[in-house]
Amino acid sequence: MSTPSATLPRGRPARLFCGRVLPAALTAFVTLALVACSSGAQPRRIDFSAETPVPEQLSYQLTDRSGQSYGTAVLSTRQDGSDLALEQAYQGPDGTTDRSVVRVDPGSMAPKSSVRDITVGGRKRHITTTYQDGTAAALYESGATSTTHTVTVTSATYDNQESFWLWRRLPLEAGAEYTYATVVVDTQSGAINRPVATVRVTGVDELKVGDQTIRAWRLVFDSAGVRNTVWLRDGAAHEMVRYELASGLIYELAPSGG
Predict the structure, then answer these.
(1) How far apart are CA 250 and CA 28, in angstroms?
(2) Phi and psi for 124 in degrees, rounded to 5?
(3) Where residue 224 falls among pLDDT bands split at 50, 70, 90?
(4) Among residues of the chain, what percentage have pLDDT more than 70?
(5) What is the three-class DSSP state of 80?
(6) Are 206 and 192 in contact (CB under 8 A)?
(7) CB 150 within 8 A of CB 133
(8) Reported pTM
(9) How high does pLDDT run on average in the chain?
(10) Which of 29, 48, 175, 181 has the largest count of CB atoms under 10 Å?
(11) Nearest to residue 37, comparing CAs of 191, 204, 149?
(12) What is the C-alpha to C-alpha distance for residues 141 and 145, in angstroms, rounded to an integer?
């Protein structure tokens, strides 16, 4: 999954990268805030159950725990030839923008490519990641800087930027647990990592969203002491209703978003 320079309150970590805290001003949107360090768990290919709704567009408000606004996010899904195109578009109150598009196989969710464009304080960064022959290669471009980094991948590896869609296709039942690897490209340097993520389905809650009460599955992510929680609507589409990062950033489905 991204936080603009003004997104997180001062004093709160924007992202943990192998135990190192990166300032919010340098990280753009930390969409998933996964820790890019191995947890020791063994990733396994996921047998998905639900289908990905196409086309679809969901809008989210970004706030901290006090309710202060930190911008908006729009998640869009469309067909692109034989692939699915999964897009995230973020707008921060300070003009920060972060847009990514991941192209994946509709059945296996195996990533084929991803493109990400970030603008923070006038500085632009462009990241292109391609997947071929068991390797993910990330080309990072910012100003005069251009670097390429690679990492090996397996059938149990997914692109970090597709995670919001991947979670919605998991078979959801209390106690279920899934372990897989994600490709994460650092937005400052272009360094590429393949952390292991573990997802546990821990129950069902009723959430108040606007004037609606929504019944939603609760999924918890634990990695190196960092815990994030996502709630997916209890229904065929499993829309993401709420996402809470350990940093304090919260995504909440906008009333018109689903």
Answers:
(1) 15
(2) -110, 140
(3) low
(4) 82
(5) strand
(6) no
(7) no
(8) 0.86
(9) 86
(10) 29
(11) 191
(12) 6
Q: Can you tell me whether residue 1 is helix, strand or coil?
A: coil
Phi first, then psi: give them for residue 31, nearest 5 degrees.
Answer: -60, -45
For residue 199, give every residue at least 6 positions away whose Cβ sits within 8 Å of its Cβ, in sequence order, or none: 167, 170, 177, 178, 179, 180, 219, 220, 221
For residues 15 and 30, is the Cβ–Cβ distance under 8 A? yes
Q: Which residues of 181-203 are buried (b: 16+ CB within 10 A; e: fewer)?
A: bbbbbbbeebbbbbbbbebbbee
What is the reported pLDDT for 255? Answer: 83
pLDDT above 60: residue 200:
yes
Domain spans, the chain: 15-253
From 57, 161, 60, select the one nearest 101 (Cα to Cα): 161
What are the tens digits of pLDDT across the range 130-142? 999 999 999 999 9
Distance CA 252, CA 209 (A): 8
HEC per residue, 164-233: HHHHHCCCCCCCCEEEEEEEEECCCCCCEECCEEEEEEEEEEEEEECCEEEEEEEEEEEECCEEEEEEEE
Nearest to 28 by CA among 84, 70, 68: 70
Distance between CA atoms of residues 176 and 159, nearest Å: 22
In this predicted structure, the answer to whether residue 124 has a pLDDT above a threshold of 80 is yes
The angle subtended at Cα 19 by Cα 150 and Cα 121, nearest 5°, is: 70
| pLDDT given for residue 205 in this prediction | 98
Please tell me the distance from the alpha carbon of residue 35 to that of residue 164, in angstroms, as a whole number: 16
Q: Which two tokens stand for residue 99?
A: 């847009």
137, 129 Cβ separation under 8 angstroms: yes
